[in-house]
Design a protein that fits this description.
α4 runs parallel beside α5, α7 packs parallel to α12 and α12 packs parallel to α13. Helices cover 34% and strands 21% of the residues. The protein has 13 helices and 15 strands. The chain is an alpha/beta fold.
Length: 390
Amino acid sequence: MKELELKYGCNPNQNPAKVYMEQGDLPFTVLNGRPGYINLLDAMNSWQLVQELKAATGLPAAASFKHVSPAGAAVAVPLGDVLQKVYFVEGVELSPIATAYIRARGADRMSSYGDFVALSDECDAQTASFLQREVSDGIIAPSYSAEALEILKTKRKGSYLVIQMDPSYRPAEQETKQVFGITFEQKRNDAQITEECLKDIPTKNKEIPEAAKRDLLIALITLKYTQSNSVCYAKDGQAIGIGAGQQSRVHCTRLAGNKADVWYLRQNPKVLSLPFREDVRRPDRDNAIDVYVSDECMDLLGDDNWKRVFTACPPVLTREEKQAWIATQKGVALGSDAFFPFGDNIERAHKSGVSYVAQSGGSIRDDNVIETCDKYGIAMAMTHIRLFHH
């Protein structure tokens, strides 16, 4: 099939809409549902991301996309006891691809609400079962087991979008797009993100362990498919905070750092012991946790609001307790899609436990950034590759 009619474009008033190939057939098949314009933008970007993650790490990979940027991305690193509880999979023996998906979805559950999912490997029944209980718009994968496809076809009253991608497809080297009737053309960004990118380490601390190298690669590859400017915090085989589409890099760093802090606060004992009512839906539980760990906590607990989600009024997680907990976070990797222009980015990153950094370098203030890393004993690699994505 050379072309496919879509529900509509970016908005319902942008109709008709379609995708098509200049040469050959479309490299994907719609197995269920009807795609929209943004669905396919998410699908094509997220597919590239998970394929590159698997190529770089050798592990099955998954991504959770919203509005053409990842909310989460991860590879199949086994979950520890605490994260099993945080991700609501205690005592469940997970397949590798299910592990990657659970991690990707768990990075930022608020942003992943209504996401588009990408898997590097076949979608198995276990992953489909986890997807069935989440609010999600669609999925792209190279294949599906018969049981997984049957499960996914029941989601959203049978309208859940299921796309099968041809893993052998390779796009042309030159790519084009139109803006305001004007055609833009450029070489496709086929830069390879490998450990070779991490060899130039100008900081005093030059030790980057293998696990940290893996996390830096995850951060950088995630940024390659995130709307710029963008910054990504990663740990334990997954993104834990992504700041996308900001005009100022330090705002990216703050936004992503705040998300990384929330990810870590979800592991606080007070959060893990929150007394949720059994009838509270998963999105409402996520919202309640997000408010509980924020400065709006008292709004949730005041005027008996807590009775909507909890069986008993939980103890307040004070600002001092939150700051003390976040201060115990260590070993976080930070990637940036371009150079850090000032050391203030490193100052903010340090507050969220960043120990390793990868950025392009090339700022006239590189010395200041290096000096700030040295101040905190952070090891920083300069990749000399810019990863802007628009």
